[in-house]
## 1
Amino acid sequence: MKTIFSQPLDSRSGKPSPEQTAQLDNLTRQQLKELEEKEKTPLQKALDLVIVLLPLVCSVVAMLEYQLIPNYTANKKPMTYLCLLVLLAVIYGLYLLFSLVKRGKGDRTVFDKVRYKAPLYSALFLFLALYDYLTLKTGILMYPFVPHLNAILNIAWEDRAYLIECTLHTLRLLFLGYFIGVALGLVTGITCGYSQKVRYWVTPIIKFLGPIPTSTWIPIIMVIASSLFGGAVFIIALGSWFAVTVASMTGISNVDKDYFEAAKTLGASERQLVFRVAIPHAMPSILQGCTQAMSSACTAIMIAEMMGVKAGLGWYMTWAKAWASYDKMFAALFVICFIFTVVTKALDLIKKRALRWQNGVVK
């Protein structure tokens, strides 16, 4: 059993003292989890060590596959992909070393995260090795329609100035449409969730517009929009608006009515009922809707940029495909995936920060 008290138990009664009872009352969920965990056996500890070292082994496998197996197609500047593998392995090795140092000082939090993510990292290295084998080494996935990773990395570096310009254009369009949609969605969703009269009139509109695919709006927008950029913003904002509206309305509607009655008894005004009772209790649903809205926005932006805008990653992919530059097309696709991953991770961090009370002190 792990030690959680700064003072020993009462020797006569064997029960916690008042000071120790106060410590128990202030235990966090993480501390309770550590308290309930059983001591691991030597076999389990050895298994944990094998699992956290597995990504390094898989990275070596990927390097050996790239270096030892002969190439089926031409491979210019072969060191680019190898340097990427080495960089990823070094980053993971430093992260693992840091977690081991922290665990040696009694903090297992970082090591547990590494232990949890290690199988995923291992699968990533094995996937890279498999993809390289199917493209560069054997040609099963035919080049140039499916380019190998080294070709994608090289063309991305050579065309980096244009890719950066298109990325900045995409980010401007993405966040402009996203924040407009989220702002309107919050107003619509919170109002509909709190007021049954407003919900009566707005719900049919939501049900009508929600199921319409994003691509369906392109012919209409191209006719009525004053500019293609404004039309692209509208398409992105529409998808974000729908996701946030539904999530906010559901979250507000599901707030326990007893909270409103208790607040009214204490003299709360209508404004306080909305901002002090309804919105805080619906915040998990609202933030989940914001995350779903970003997913919708990233999907819609590819369609929006194919309407005829002058730049952007979606436009870049269409242009590269027209010239049969499939390596450039894949490079833009990887940039899009990277942007979506980073933005989603940032939203998750904001969500954890805003909802930290869910993992706070247990009373």
## 2
Amino acid sequence: MAAKIISGVEVARQIREEIKAEVEQLKAKYNKVPGLVTILVGENPASVSYVTGKQKTAKELGFYSVQDDQPADITEEQLLALIDKYNKDDSINGILVQLPLPKHINETKVLYAIDPDKDVDAFHPVNVGRLVIGEGIFLPCTPAGIQELLVRGGVETSGAHVVVVGRSNIVGKPIANIMLQKAKGANSTVTVVHTGTKDVGHYTRMADILIVAAGRPKYVTADMVKEGAAVIDVGVNRIGMTPEGKAKLAGDVDFDNVKEKASLITPVPGGVGPMTITMLMKNTLAAFKNSLGIK
């Protein structure tokens, strides 16, 4: 029996509707709305596209939204001063600096300069620490989106064996920590495999829930997956062009074959991808509520 395909597009739409309704309620009560600033340095076409998408979504949800474009030759000192300005601005709850930055700017220094309570990407070491001890105000966007897909897909996580393929700071490590927590949508037993693991398939075949963020197209094949497992594919790999001149995308999972074995699977595109911006908006709302003293 083929797997249930869980649509990130549909789940993201549901969450955005919930956010929009909550923003309207908070606005009626406090006469304030969440504020998000996206800082773009230079004119990298991919970065321009990402930032435009984030701003558009924020406005649709009723946020106060600021797009701050800076020239590619801005100094590190000037950029840090700009972040400090937004750290002190009460109308801004979320600060996002679009990466990558020009080579003359230290990305780590810039990310660490953001007030952890406004760090809606949740990359600041303070937020990483909060995540590990289970006290995060908000969670990194892509891993948080994965958890939402599992919960809303009806997957039982408590007591399940989760195997994570990949150990990046953006996906692998945080999703492992999220699923370990003694919390709803988590409480799992977690194994992390990576490039140093001998016989990756030995572990992936044990997974009730398999989360793949390997960065290699079609890396996980059907013989590496247990019958009835839930499979979340985080990978987005360009594997050529369509006759129409569009990029051909593939995930890290051999979708066509694995879907015949899994109970649930996410497609690429249209799976985890649409969740990331939505979870950024959810984090900005959480930061706003935190600033109002609302748990």
